[in-house]
Amino acid sequence: MGLTDALAGVLPSGTASSWRDRAAALIGLVVAIALGATNLLEAEQLQLHHGPLFGPAVSDSTLHRLLSTTDETRRAQIAKVRQRVRLHIWTLLHLRPGGFPYLTVAGRHLKGWIVLDMDATVITAASRKQGAAGTFKGTFGFHPLAAWPANTDECLAMELREGNAGANTVADHLRVLDAALAQIPRSSQAKILVRVDGAGATHGLLKRRQALNTTRRTVRYTVGWTITPEDERAIARLPEAAWETSLRQDGEVQEGYFVAE
Length: 261
Prior knowledge:
three-stranded antiparallel β-sheet; 2 domains; alpha+beta; single chain; five-stranded mixed β-sheet; 12 strands; Nucleotidyltransferase, domain 5
């Protein structure tokens, strides 16, 4: 993919015989996390199995130094590298026999559409780690917010937040949305569907998504919200003829559930 070589241009380098390539170390750490590593020591142990691919395992102390020197400027540089490599990968996906993985929703093939999902998740912590706090679900840990394209299941952007971060904080959603759009190849002229649950039911986020529409880019969005008694009374006033049976994601009829415009 060229990711390791591209990262080498923005990460520290050294000439000492004992120097470990920081780009390879970062990629190895990412792989270890994907395989379930929850701390640097576990990441080091998992890398012992990847010797033929990444070379000797990088020590947990080296990984710690790598992360501690990755400041905001360097993270921005890494993001640009990811953007450039992703363009290459998505171009290859378009060229494969099956083409790019566009979604089929309710029996409708969304060719040309990038479906972007935004959501937060609660990650529990067993001790008072940095940033750990009480969450709105009554647990203790972290509350990161992220965005993924449903087409490829990649994590485009993620904001690491303390456990007590608000579920519907507008500023956080706007930063993650902008960071995710920057990662989507040719997003300025794409067709994008943004899906957010009730945490995205804020005026600031809705206005921002509406403003993303241009003469070259089409943005549509769905958002959930908490049903209030006023909503229930309004829904009850809809005539029976307005309702029709809903469909599942695959387009099959979903008995017992109904939808109305």
